[in-house]
Amino acid sequence: MLVFINLRYISFKSIMFNKVSSVLLPCLAGSVLFIACNSVNPGTLNGTPSNEKAVSKDIHTQSNADSVLVKHLGLNIKVNFDTRRISGVATWDIDNTMHQSELVLDTYDLTIDSIKNDNTATTFKLGEKVQHLGKALHIAIAANTKQVQVYYHTCDSSRALRWLTPQQTHDKKYPFLFTQSESIYARSWVPCPDGPGIRFSYDARVEVPKDLLALMSATNPQQTNDSGIYHFQMEIPVPAYLLALAVGKIEFKPLGEKTGVYAEPGMLAKSAYELAPVNDMVANAGKLYGEYKWGRYDVIVLPPAFPIGGMENPRLTFATPTIIAGDRSLVSLIAHELAHSWSGNLVTNATWNDFWLNEGFTNYFERRIMESIYGSDYSDMLWELGYQTLKDNVRDLGEKSPDTHLFLNLKDRDPDDGLTDIPYEKGSLFLQLIEKTVGREKFDVFLKQYFEEHSFKTITTTAFLDYLDKNLLHGDTSLTNKIRINDWVYGPGIPTNCPRAGGKLFAAVDTARNHFLAGAAPTTLATQKWSTHEWLYFLHNMPAKLTVDQMYSLDKQFSFTNSGNCEIADLWYVVAIRNGYKVANTKIDEFLSTVGRRKFLEPIYSELMKSTDGAAFAKSLYNKYRDNYHPLAQESLDRIVMGKAK
User: Fold this and answer.
1) Which of 200, 225, 475, 608 sits in a 20 to 30 Å window from 330, CA-based?
2) Which of these three, 455, 489, 523, is where a domain ends?
3) Which member of 174, 424, 537, 622 is catalytic?
């Protein structure tokens, strides 16, 4: 993976299974999705393909929300920093119209204390632990059961929960807790039906230490109160992976009438300055593809241990502090998370096999937002950097690997295996190809209609392709032959008709790099107006080997080793390690001690492990800083540095 602008994840794992023809569809509004073996005709019923034969359910949930409708979650929990536990009760409003004898929920390392049906004790059992999926919670219910109350507590090593000591925060004064529920980690802090196609509304009562503020993916307070008890409401049904909680010494600053930023006090002013463009982003996104339907759009800038770039939790994007560069050069990440308010949150991928429908659309939308604000030359840079990211990812995974298909088969695998650059970059380039083939005006009308007609619903790959044919391509053979849909969706690698950006601004970067490599002094290069994207392109396309003198001259002129821009610093450190430029070692040490974003950690540790001296350095650093990293980052870094099997 290339350390560029918008990716939240990096996960280059084992090879996927061959393409299958199965797709998923909802069988009940707000309920679970099913895999079907037949193709989908365009006919629909309540927004759902009406003639698919359901044969088995979403492979990443053990719940039975296909037969017991879960409608609403009432959460009443207490956050205890001393024990590192969340405890309380999850109350599920259900509709048992099919007269099932049990409700089955997903759990992962939860302790179930007791369960009641309509306030009367009932029996339950936990199934055997299934790899990746956890234990199914089987709860006895009656035909007329309306509510199920699950009393439970989490363990101190829950995969979704990151408990930080004061020393691990920015201000180093108070503890902090944040969640990461995507992909299937919500089940490790709430017993729930945990699949992207299962939507439910929720409300919550959360008790925290009195000095701290609690926030969720819902309506939120803007300041602490005297009781330490906070109430939340999310009246719009959402899937479990969008459940989110943050607790800490947090303050708020408005950015506009319906936008604002939360952060630790010491980060608030910097964050508010950096995120000032958010108002324009929301306005421009709405002009492109329809009304923003979630009320407020706020962002919380989390402590450094947050393992990814951003998470699109409704009404409250979780963001890494590594985007705070001081010059607003990395805010395209926020454009990406904002775009999820349409693609992903509004229209949700049916299963993790259909993940590209979430991220490919969002990547495309993000670049259209950035173009509307900063112009086409700017967005062209994002497209070209994305193409290079895709090219690198395909090389790492293998050009013929099924992992490079858009539609995946993740049977018996962790859904995180699909969180590579492929759904982001290949998916968005596929949409750009459609735009260029049919014309932007027609494509924009189509996308706006798509978002409106599928609002608060889920969709499968097959259903989308049928919708595309019916509403945009209209069976036009010449158009479908130009696009070659099967090559993109069900084929490996990068199709030969992949669009490329014009690269007007990057042409000047190529010229500057070539002059430097031909012997020109860095002081003579015309770099004064370069953005972060141009610097990344400049460094990424350097030859694999540079001399120490070349490294020194670049560093002396441009201060890469001391850069405050995490994107540039991370790429420079990889180049420095590759070329034995040990001047950067002290800053590499400092960087790895303060940054928890997996996207930045993996390339540095991976490059260090390629040499004997580097491996020794990597292991010494990892031993010191491993506890600073999120469990998700620890899992991948344990494999890179310690050689542990998955």
Assistant:
1) 608
2) 489
3) 424
Same domain, 184 and 304: yes
CA–centroid distance for 582 within its chain: 34
Single pTM value for the model: 0.90
375, part of any domain:
yes
Dihedral Cα 162, 168, 172, 176, nearest 10 deg? 0
Residue 427 resides in a domain: yes
Identify the active-site residue in 52, 337, 359, 435.
Answer: 337
Q: Show which of 338, 367, 382 is a domain's final residue.
A: 338
First to last CA, the chain: 19
In this structure, are residues 255 and 278 in contact, taking their beta carbons and an 8 Å threshold?
A: yes
Q: Are residues 87 and 29 in the same domain?
A: no
- CA 610 to CA 590: how far, in whole Å? 21
Nearest-5° Cα angle at 580, 564 to 396? 80
What is the predicted pLDDT for the residue at 202? 98
Is residue 241 part of the annotated active site? The answer reads: no
Q: What domain count does the chain have? A: 3
> What count of other Cβ atoms lies within 10 Å of the Cβ of residue 391?
16
Residue 58: inside a domain, yes or no? no
For 278-336, how does the pLDDT look when each residue is reduced to its tens digit (9 = 90+)? 999 999 999 999 999 999 999 999 999 999 999 999 999 999 999 999 989 899 999 99
φ, ψ of residue 35 in degrees (nearest 5): -85, 135
Give dist(CA 351, CA 418) in Å, integer.
11
The per-residue DSSP string of 21-60 comes to --EEEESSTTS-EEEESS---S-EETTEESS--EEEE-TT
Write out the H or E segment, with its range, that includes residue 267.
Answer: helix 265-274
The answer to whether residues 418 and 546 belong to one domain is no
Q: Which residue has the tokens 């590759």?
A: 578
For residue 152, the surrounding DSSP H or E stretch is strand 147-154
Q: Are residues 481 and 559 in the same domain?
A: no
